[in-house]
């Protein structure tokens, strides 16, 4: 079964991730929202690298830009940089324990946020430091839950 | 990977510094629609439940309360009519020739930007309802923001709390003019360039001054909640709490302001009166 990609499931998961990223939150919580789409892509790159590559991440990023972005290409750039980081550690990642995975995800999210914010600071003057670390922390904390959910989905399918 | 990153960088530069990619934004604007709609589903269900699952006694209590409120407001309105007339007479005396008359269009919030750093919302009125770029948006308590992108059946509003937004205001107590800018916090905006000696105190209420011809005059903007004087700095820091419920309101009003010449209006009134008489006589 595992030689064919379940495209519908993939699209569905992506849509759910985008929705979780979109749902309006209270203004204090909004800074803490982890980049769900990046986390999903990270999972796929980590555990299904035979199907997914940097180009896929780039494409997902670009579609987010096209749908919701203010500057085209910002998510594409951040996604592809984060994806290449994930892929470079992928062969090791299989053997990571949950804690190590969480820490690694935190680094990936940090890289992603830094790229996104630096792109945005090209055209806007924004307060860089404060909001940067919240999603990093929340992603690391949420990763085990997401990981288990994704794994369950995949094992049911295969 | 390098090629992809390069392509992304080129796109970023093109989109930041030129307007060549705007058509792309416009094409795909509609595609984001289902997502925004889906995020509103829980809200809509809750609202539907609130609206339709009310008991008879609750409805009666509501009706009672609304009738009382109506009575109170009507009472106040009577005074308003008198005051309005007086205002017109005084303006006539001062040779002021224009009077602002605002029409509003009710609109609903349909989407909020997922990015906590940009305070943008989407509303369900667009070019088909004659919404235009730069149009002011208010809620029941005060000024919310202005329209920045108009599409056919929806548009995007930049809130006054966004760090890219600034608007001319005045202190309603003494008419002191200032510029209020957003700082990316839904609870606070800030006055720019207020010197140590200018007369602003905590509790002052600020209204839009109408300068800049973007926002109409006299809409409440906020209340001064904090003043920080730092001896080493040229300007004091004045923090304002927005009057509008910027992060909570879901029913908003689009303001169509028209400048009406007072003399014209007077003549219009006479004409309509004449017409009325005619109608009466023809009957």
CATH architecture of one domain in chain B: Beta Barrel
Helix content of chain A: over 70%
How many whole angstroms does the radius of gyration of chain A measure? Answer: 15 Å
At the fold tier of CATH, the topology name of one domain in chain B is Thrombin, subunit H
Strand elements of chain B, count: 12
Distance between the termini of chain B: 82 Å
How many independent structural domains of chain A?
1
Shape, per Cα inertia axes of chain B: globular
- The residue ranges of chain B in which pLDDT falls below 50 over 5 or more consecutive positions are 260-268, 270-283
Helix content of chain B: 25-40%
CATH homology group of one domain in chain B: Rod shape-determining protein MreC, domain 2
Question: What does this molecule look like?
Answer:
The complex is a heterodimer of chains A (158) and B (283). Chain A is mainly α and 158 residues long. The termini of chain A are close together. Chain A has one domain (7-157). Chain A is globular. In chain A, helix 3 crosses helix 8. Chain A has helices spanning 7-22, 27-30, 36-47, 54-68, 74-88, 90-93, 98-123, 129-157. Helix content of chain A is 77%, strand content 0%. Chain A contains 8 helices and no strands. By secondary structure, chain B is of the alpha+beta class. Chain B has a domain at 107-257: Rod shape-determining protein MreC, domain 2 (Thrombin, subunit H, Beta Barrel). In chain B, 36% of the residues lie in helices and 32% in strands. Chain B contains 5 helices and 12 strands. In chain B, the strands form 2 sheets. Chain B has a 6-stranded antiparallel barrel. Chain B has a 6-stranded antiparallel β-barrel with strand order 6-7-8-11-10-9. Chain B is globular. The interface between A and B is large, with 41 and 37 residues.
């Amino acid at each position: 079964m595992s030689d064919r990609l379940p495209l519908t499931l993939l699209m569905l998961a992506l849509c759910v991730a985008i929705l979780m990223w979109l749902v309006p939150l209270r203004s204090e919580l909004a800074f803490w929202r982890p980049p769900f789409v990046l986390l999903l892509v990270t999972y796929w790159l980590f555990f299904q690298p035979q199907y997914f590559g940097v180009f896929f991440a780039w494409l997902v990023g670009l579609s987010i830009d096209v749908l919701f972005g203010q500057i085209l290409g910002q998510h594409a750039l951040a996604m592809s940089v984060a994806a290449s980081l994930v892929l470079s550690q992928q062969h090791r990642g299989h053997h990571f324990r949950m804690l190590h995975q969480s820490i690694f995800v935190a680094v990936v999210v940090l890289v992603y946020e830094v790229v996104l914010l630096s792109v945005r600071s090209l055209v806007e003057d924004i307060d860089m430091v404060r909001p940067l670390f919240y999603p990093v922390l929340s992603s690391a904390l949420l990763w085990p839950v997401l990981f288990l959910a994704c794994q369950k989905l995949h094992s049911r399918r295969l | 990977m390098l090629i992809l990153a390069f392509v992304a960088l080129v796109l970023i530069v093109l989109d930041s510094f030129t307007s060549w990619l705007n058509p792309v934004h416009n094409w795909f604007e509609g595609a984001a629609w289902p997502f925004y709609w889906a995020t509103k589903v829980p809200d809509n269900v809750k609202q539907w439940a609130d609206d339709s699952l009310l008991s008879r006694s609750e409805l009666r209590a509501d009706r009672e309360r609304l009738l009382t409120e109506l009575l109170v407001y009507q009472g106040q309105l009577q005074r308003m009519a008198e005051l309005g007339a007086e205002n017109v007479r005084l303006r006539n005396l001062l040779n002021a020739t224009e009077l602002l008359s605002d029409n509003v269009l009710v609109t609903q919030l349909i989407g909020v930007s997922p990015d906590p750093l940009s305070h943008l919302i989407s509303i369900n009125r667009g070019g088909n309802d004659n919404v235009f770029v730069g149009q002011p948006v208010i809620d029941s308590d005060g000024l919310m923001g202005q329209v920045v992108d108009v599409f056919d059946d929806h548009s995007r509003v930049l809130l006054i709390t966004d760090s890219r937004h600034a608007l001319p205001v005045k202190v309603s107590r003494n008419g002191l003019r200032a510029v209020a800018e957003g700082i990316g916090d839904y609870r606070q905006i800030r006055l720019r360039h207020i010197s140590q000696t200018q007369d602003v105190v905590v509790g002052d209420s600020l209204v839009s001054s109408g300068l800049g011809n973007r926002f109409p005059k006299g809409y409440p903007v906020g209340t001064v909640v904090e003043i920080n004087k730092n001896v080493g700095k040229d300007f004091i820091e004045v923090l304002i709490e927005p009057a509008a419920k910027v992060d909570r309101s879901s029913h908003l009003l689009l303001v169509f302001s028209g400048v009406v010449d007072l003399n014209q209006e007077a003549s219009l009134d006479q004409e309509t009166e004449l017409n009325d008489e005619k109608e009466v006589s023809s009957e």
